[in-house]
Automatic annotation (TrEMBL):
Gene3D superfamilies per UniProt: 3.30.70.20
Name this polypeptide is given: Ferredoxin
SUPFAM superfamilies documented for this protein: 4Fe-4S ferredoxins (SSF54862)
Pfam family, one: Fer4_15
Length: 73
């Protein structure tokens, strides 16, 4: 089953913890907003993806089975 890391852009405050903790999965754009690099998240990186979801102080990140339910879509 594929898993996707999604960003709720309305909740994100741009702290940068996600791309600091998992630069292989998340990068940032010129404004400091997260950009998801690994779609779907490779199985070998699921632990890192779960970690960035856990450390986001705004709870703006989620791991989902489908992109269609994404708050950023």
């Amino acid at each position: 089953m594929d898993r996707y890391l999604t960003v709720d852009r309305g909740a994100c405050a741009g702290h940068g913890l996600c791309y600091g903790a998992a630069p292989e999965i998340v990068d940032c754009d010129d404004q400091g907003d997260p950009i998801i690099l690994a779609e779907p998240v490779p199985a070998a990186m699921l632990g890192q993806a779960e970690h960035v979801v856990d450390i986001c102080p705004e709870r703006a990140l989620a791991l989902q089975e489908s992109l269609q339910a994404s708050p950023s879509a």
